[in-house]
Amino acid sequence: MASVTRAGSRIEYEVTGDGPPLALLHGFFGDRSTWHAAGHVGALADRFRLVLIDLAGHGGSDAPSDPARYQMDEHARDVVAVLDSLGVDRAAVWGASMGGRVGFHLMARFPDRLAALVAGGAHACAVETGLAEAQREGRVLREQGTAPFADEMEPLPGWMRDVMLRADGRALALQLLADAGEMSPLSDLGLATTPVLLLAGEHDPRLGLIRATGDRLSRAEIAVLPGCGHFDTFARTDLTVPLAREFLGRARP
Fold first, then answer.
1. Phi, psi angles (nearest 5°) of residue 40
2. Domains of the chain
3. 11, 64, 155, 232: which has the fewest Cβ within 10 Å?
4. Does the predicted model carry a pTM greater than 0.85?
């Protein structure tokens, strides 16, 4: 595995496949291994040079102790540092849930580095979790780890539960604190020309926010997956990969 160090934190990543670069950004509780387990790597490596990144506090990357280091703009800068280390000037990004939020911040802060964005179950509106809720959930994560959250989530495949159970609860608690104070990047996205595909589950409680995000972007497409929830926008590769491949083929510069 390769890594790059930025702002005192080591960010781990791997590269596989051949073609135009496509960075894959996992969701909260996840790490880069989920892209292998769910089948994305097997389905995309024939067409893209895949850059799988562990965001700070996740997987093999460092877990800094400063909550400010978990802000979306900081994650976005880490992604740019990885691209710089690979000599990649411009890449497409597929972000799952939290990874999609990182993608919107990339789009706002580094538009010249982003060729296209696929955002699964993600929006660019203000984060729904308030400080009190973030503190309560963070306390559970620090004291009990991630098991209570794995037990409460919609039915999960075994590989995702395993990833959740080995996640760093202390780092995730810091991520929640950073999220609670996060500002929406929507005001900076109104003039963005990056093509965006928003993948949304029909039953995702965030569907309204995802639609609102799409309405604010000049080149956004929304694909609503029938009968699907939030996690399905990641796990249902039978639905999402064909949509993403077709979209990225059209969006290629």
1. -65, -45
2. 2-127+185-251 (3.40.50.1820)
3. 155
4. yes
Model confidence band, residue 253 (pLDDT cutoffs 50, 70, 90): low
User: Residue for token digits 């496949």?
Assistant: 17
Question: What does the chain look like in DSSP terms, one character per residue?
Answer: -EEEEETTEEEEEEEEESSSEEEEE--TT--THHHHHTTHHHHHTTTSEEEEE--TTSTTS---S-GGGGSHHHHHHHHHHHHHHTT-S-EEEEEETHHHHHHHHHHHH-GGGEEEEEEES---S--S--HHHHHHHHHHHHHHTTHHHHHHSSP--HHHHHHHHHS-HHHHHHHHHHHHTPPP-GGGTTT----EEEEEETT-TTHHHHHHHHHH-TTEEEEEETT--TTHHHH-HHHHHHHHHHHHHHH--
User: Hey, CA dihedral for 60, 27, 104, 242, is it positive or negative?
Assistant: positive
Q: Are strands 196-201 and 220-225 parallel, antiparallel or unpaired?
A: parallel
**Range with lowest mean pLDDT among 77-91, 101-115, 138-152:** 138-152
Per-residue pLDDT reduced to its tens digit, 98-120:
999 999 999 999 999 999 999 99
The token pair at 137 is: 């959930």
For range 197-222, the mean pLDDT: 95
Region 43-54 average pLDDT? 98
Radius of gyration of the chain (CA): 17
